[in-house]
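Deliverable D5.2: sample structural annotation.
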Amino acid sequence: MPGVYGRDLDLNLLRVFLVVADTGSVTEAAKRLYLTQPAVSAALGRLTRAVGAPLLVRRGRSLTLTPRGQQLRDASKMHLTPLIEAALDAPAFDPRSSQRTLRLGFSDSAEAWLLPGLCQVLGREAPGMQIVAVPVQFRTIGAALGSSLDAAVTVADELPSNIRRHTLFHGGFVCLFDPRHIKRRRLTEAEYFARDHVIVSYNGDLRGVVEDATGKRRRVRCSVASFANVGAIVDGTALIATVPHVVARDIRALRPHLRVSPVPFALEGADVELLWPAASDEDDACRFVRDHIIALAATLAKAPSS
């Protein structure tokens, strides 16, 4: 292929040649191509020199094809027509036959509530599509969307202008604990800070969302990197976990004996957003998945809280 590309032939010359061959006239071809007659004549001259043989001869007042010209005309039409149709007539997207693989970024909490439902939808409606789930954080999401991801679901701050945003829901927090060891239906702020906690820290330290938001420090017994095992850690202990309400819902689906209560002080949640590169706005496969993510999030928002 590099040898083919390296040869000095402007493919636009073939387009001019085909119109002249069809009309038999430089003047008529110039009208159809919205070019001047000298420009059409110059294009034919360049193509003739590139081919190395006459392509058209004058007979009377019209131009006719030489044998080499006829051969070039037939070959060009055979190849150029499908190329033009492919460029101008995009095939309709059919999810049932699509074989696309999409890379989706999920925050730790989003993967648990979204990915199972999304896989079920794809299994029913787009069995050939595949999802590669990638962990993301609000600090790294901008760079990830700019390089490798088709979309992401997470909390984000400032993002480049070429990233689209759609708010899925506002994520608040609750306290999760084992009522066999903490016999209170609602915690006071004093009780909250007097007890031991398990926290999720993406930095691998002893600071979590409460420390960042309030400046107050909890008595941290255990710091983990994700929400995956928080339910198991809390179960059977006197530890408190402060988690997004969607995480608490999923934990209690497996461990219904655990209890939740409101956080006993002001702790602002954040918007959980669907994010994607503007370049994929018109990508039908990406839009198909985005629409289902929005629908799944709407179902979640309507579900009764614990």
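Annotation notes: Residues 83 and 238 are 68 Å apart (CA to CA). Confidence is low (pLDDT under 50) at residues 1-6.
The annotation will be released with the project's public dataset once the embargo ends.
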